[in-house]
Amino acid sequence: MSVSLALIPLALTLRVVMGKDKFGDWADSMQVKVPTNIKNESDLVQTLQKAGYDAEKMGGNFKTHLTGEKQFFFWERIDGKWHAIFAKSDSQPILQQFMSDLEQKSGRTIFTAGLPDPWDQMEEEPVQIFPTNFRDGALLTRTLKEFGVNPIQGTNGDISCIVQGTQLTFRQNEDAPFTVEMKNPPNLHEIFMYISDVDDEYKRYVQALVYEKLKARAAEKNLSIENEEVLEDNSIVITLNIQG
Predict the structure, then answer these.
(1) pLDDT interval class at 53 (50, 70, 90)
(2) Residue 63: which of 91, 44, 88, 78 has the closest Cα?
(3) Domain of 142: which CATH number?
(4) Does residue 213 carry a pLDDT above 50?
(5) Which alpha helices (H) appear in the chain, and where do they start and end?
(6) Is the pLDDT higher at 231 or at 4?
(7) Which domain holds residue 18?
(8) Ranked by mean pLDDT, which of 1-5, 126-130, 133-137, 192-196 comes out on top?
(9) Is the predicted pLDDT of residue 55 greater than 50, yes or no?
């Protein structure tokens, strides 16, 4: 799986929090880009499909699954040639098997470079830190509890919990959003998906609080709610009536 894909829908959140350049540098540091000699988009798609793999169009790139829905990676066109974008957390034997299988079934050499060797000695940070959208510690703690974990808040404000055997520590610097710290997670993709789900639930709680505060302030200003409409994205449009 490509890290950039593994972050969806968290990717857009991270990109906004980190900024375009920092997000790009971070994403690159988590990936391995293996070049091919394929230049044409249709050639890439036909080669994959003939070998029994999918090529799902996503923007200007493609997504290919390896073993089920959770094992996938990206194809990206760089300098006129298609590159396989693998995550450093992916299994090297699975990726090597895929590369060998694709060349064997297509009857030609495709990859112009191999995987870094040795894979397990690639430089890794013992502790990885990522930004989040969380700002309210009490609301974050409540959300984590709703997801079945037992968060512990320290005297310094840090919030810690164990998710799938990985310790997550949420830290906040003054009024900035929390960052999440994780140490050598065994499955980065699963952790990102978990945080993404927490992010969605957290936003729903924030929306509910804003909604209740809006109704209270409307009542204080002698305004009544004339209509409420829940949109497809679960946002709420409220029409207020000024009482004479």
Answers:
(1) very high
(2) 44
(3) 3.30.310
(4) yes
(5) 3-6, 10-18, 20-29, 41-50, 92-106, 137-146, 188-220
(6) 231
(7) 3-119
(8) 133-137
(9) yes
Same domain, 8 and 39: yes
* 93-135 pLDDT, tens digit each: 889 999 999 999 999 999 998 887 655 545 555 677 777 888 8
Give buried/exposed letters for 121-142 (b at 16+ CB in 10 A, else e). Answer: eeeeeeebebbbebebbeebbe
Residue 170 CB burial class (10 angstroms; 0-12, 13-18, ≥19): buried
Q: Is 0.85 surpassed by the pTM of this model?
A: no
Which tokens belong to 195? 């945080």
What single string gives the DSSP state of each residue in 73-126?
A: EEEEEETTEEEEEEETTS-HHHHHHHHHHHHHHHTS--BSS---SSGGGS---S
Structural domain ending residue among the three candidates 103, 119, 135: 119
* Residue 223 and residue 152 in one domain: yes
